[in-house]
Amino acid sequence: MSAILSKAVQIQRNGGPEVMDLVVRDAGQPGPGEILLRHHAVGLNFIDVYQRSGLYSLPLPLQLGMEAAGVVEAVGDGVTHLQTGDRVAYACNPPGSYCERRVMPATHVCRLPDNISFDTAAAMMLKGMTVQYLLKQCQPMQGLQAGDYVLFHAAAGGVGLIACQWARALGLQLIATAGSDEKCQLALANGASHAINYRTEDFAARVQEITQGQGVKVVYDSVGKDTWEGSIACLRRFGLMVSFGNASGPVPPVSLAALAAKGLYVTRPSLFVYAHDRATTQAMADDLFAVVSSGQVRIHIDQRFALDEVRAAHEALEARRTTGSTILMV
């Protein structure tokens, strides 16, 4: 059988954007439980940066990328929920979406509704399913009800803009932080109740002012080191600190005694703990598809790069020059 050639982005060592190389490889044929997928668009996420840099250590050489959308070209034995020709999207392990074609496990690949484009799907699967588990599943002990305050950092990014809109749909009062006045205005335009420029304001003091000294029930923090202490200060009694990313660097060691004064809870979740099997993954994706199809959440694709421009894409993401979602065109 002739080789199925595919351009792909690989790294041989950890480092900066310069370690990514575009190579041509044989995508192969699907084995049992696998599919061959032709990508139409690929999503870009901060987890890709963590894996490229070595913050998240994975065996090398490594093909990067965690999400994409496209069409199934072949199906291996035992795959029953997909067939050749299906429009699909995914956000899952193993990495490898930065390519034209790939063979991958079918378990976490979801059928894509006809009314959602490939570009939109590639831009929203990892980010949107992350917001789904954050707002709908990763909740404080008292739960979340309409009118409750939550704090969401980096609210003008791909995850953040989805969170602003979805929180509004749930009736939550989302307090957004961002690194410029323009990004704050973008968060407000997408449903945030309040926005704080953390470069010019003390966000912890501002949160206390907004909540009349009560604090928020939950903080959703993907920034990490730079916002940790302030985030803890924003929480009310029995509040939940959700640390789900490290954009500014890893959170330093935490003193459990620092949580005692207000009885705080801390969790470090990940999408792949929540989306742990096919049924759960499909249910989370269906929830995302429904809120996007309804128009309550619109996916902002503010940057597009060709696959061979991947180094420039990573540079823009790490420099925080991006808003909304970024995709690689295949």
UniProtKB/TrEMBL annotation:
<dbReference type="GO" id="GO:0005829">
    <property type="term" value="C:cytosol"/>
</dbReference>
<dbReference type="InterPro" id="IPR047618">
    <property type="entry name" value="QOR-like"/>
</dbReference>
<dbReference type="GO" id="GO:0008270">
    <property type="term" value="F:zinc ion binding"/>
</dbReference>
<dbReference type="GO" id="GO:0035925">
    <property type="term" value="F:mRNA 3'-UTR AU-rich region binding"/>
</dbReference>
<feature type="domain" description="Enoyl reductase (ER)">
    <location>
        <begin position="15"/>
        <end position="328"/>
    </location>
</feature>
<dbReference type="InterPro" id="IPR036291">
    <property type="entry name" value="NAD(P)-bd_dom_sf"/>
</dbReference>
<dbReference type="InterPro" id="IPR013154">
    <property type="entry name" value="ADH-like_N"/>
</dbReference>
<dbReference type="InterPro" id="IPR002364">
    <property type="entry name" value="Quin_OxRdtase/zeta-crystal_CS"/>
</dbReference>
<protein>
    <submittedName>
        <fullName>Quinone oxidoreductase</fullName>
    </submittedName>
</protein>
<dbReference type="Pfam" id="PF08240">
    <property type="entry name" value="ADH_N"/>
</dbReference>
<dbReference type="GO" id="GO:0070402">
    <property type="term" value="F:NADPH binding"/>
</dbReference>
<dbReference type="InterPro" id="IPR011032">
    <property type="entry name" value="GroES-like_sf"/>
</dbReference>
<keyword id="KW-0560">Oxidoreductase</keyword>
<dbReference type="Pfam" id="PF00107">
    <property type="entry name" value="ADH_zinc_N"/>
</dbReference>
<dbReference type="GO" id="GO:0003960">
    <property type="term" value="F:quinone reductase (NADPH) activity"/>
</dbReference>
<dbReference type="InterPro" id="IPR020843">
    <property type="entry name" value="ER"/>
</dbReference>
<dbReference type="InterPro" id="IPR013149">
    <property type="entry name" value="ADH-like_C"/>
</dbReference>
<keyword id="KW-0521">NADP</keyword>
